[in-house]
Amino acid sequence: MSMEFHRRLPNPDEVRQTYPLSPAAAERKAERDREIADVFTGASDRFLLIIGPCSADYEESVMDYVNRLAKVQEKVRDKVLIIPRVYTNKPRTTGDGYKGMVHQPDPNGKPDMLAGLLAIRSLHARVVTETGLTSADEMLYPENYQYLSDLLSYVAIGARSVEDQQHRLTSSGIDVPVGMKNPSCGDLSVMLNSIMAAQHPHTFIYQGWEVSTTGNPLAHAVLRGSIDNDGKCIPNYHYEDLSKLYEAYAAKGLSNLACVVDTNHYNSNKKFDEQVRIAKEVLHSRRHSDDIRRMVKGLMIESYLVDGNQKIGGNCYGQSITDPCLGWEKSEKLICDVADAL
Length: 342
Known about the structure:
Elements: H1 12-18, H2 23-41, E1 47-52, H3 59-76, E2 80-84, H4 113-131, E3 135-138, E4 152-157, H5 165-171, E5 178-181, H6 188-199, E6 203-206, E7 209-212, E8 220-223, E9 226-227, E10 233-234, H7 239-252, E11 259-262, H8 274-288, H9 290-295, E12 296-302, E13 306-309, E14 319-320, H10 328-341
Helix pairs in contact: 3-4, 3-10, 5-6, 6-7, 8-10
């Protein structure tokens, strides 16, 4: 057993200086951040859709997808605020399989972390520069966040990471909304404790520095379903689940009580077509309860250009190489249906 050191990678400051965001793009990003924050504070009643591929894979097909999203955003802008899901890190349950663009900028090639860091920065920069949208990514590795901190408008903490102290503390120093997913076991208290930790100030070690944070009042809950000891999926998007979360959340006295519902993962048992039905049920619950309407700020949807998924090396342009996703035609219709139902 050994750990082999290959090369020193540039630090985040070096990468940002070499590949800066243009002043116009930075201004647009700041505008988007304000719009998204207003949803979580209640200053805006627009509904969020964090939508996109399970995992960003090929830059051109991802940009094709995001450009299509930008056109739909114009149609629904009065009611819906779209955040492209551009996830460049892919958690793997067993450690095997495609780990995302940061590891393999070419899914068919070998891991190359330097090329990967530059590729994910390029991709997120293209999103804001070419479409005027700004994206969401998962913070799988807290030490990597600073490479993208000037580009992201939303950060997700996954079910496997939500109990990790470094994720919680790093989230307390992020200035955009951070969604804390419930853990795989479904324990809401774990998720709520993570939100509390992220909303509080902390002092800790980060990238070799002693740092302090002021807390992130935009940290919030993400419901993604759970799994029992027998491997059975247990959804948590139903009316009763949302009511239970509201009561537990309110009792904590946290800032900006808010929840986003993930329509895939264990909520759909990874049956991607079920996302349409689940989204509509959540909207129905919002109409039925003022408390749920105030709490549920949006949905996460896994969507790409082509229905389903394929293995790495497949030749279907715009089809996921990880979890199956909803295709473009169904996704566009769902976005419009959501807007019409609000």
